[in-house]
Amino acid sequence: SMPSSVKQRALDLVRAGQSAAAAAREVGVSRQAVHQWVAAWEAEHGEQLLPKRLSPEARGGAPLPEDPQERAQELTRRRKVAERERRHEAGLVRFEAWVHPEDRAALTAYVARLTKRRGVG
Question: How many domains does the chain contain in total?
Answer without folding.
Answer: 2
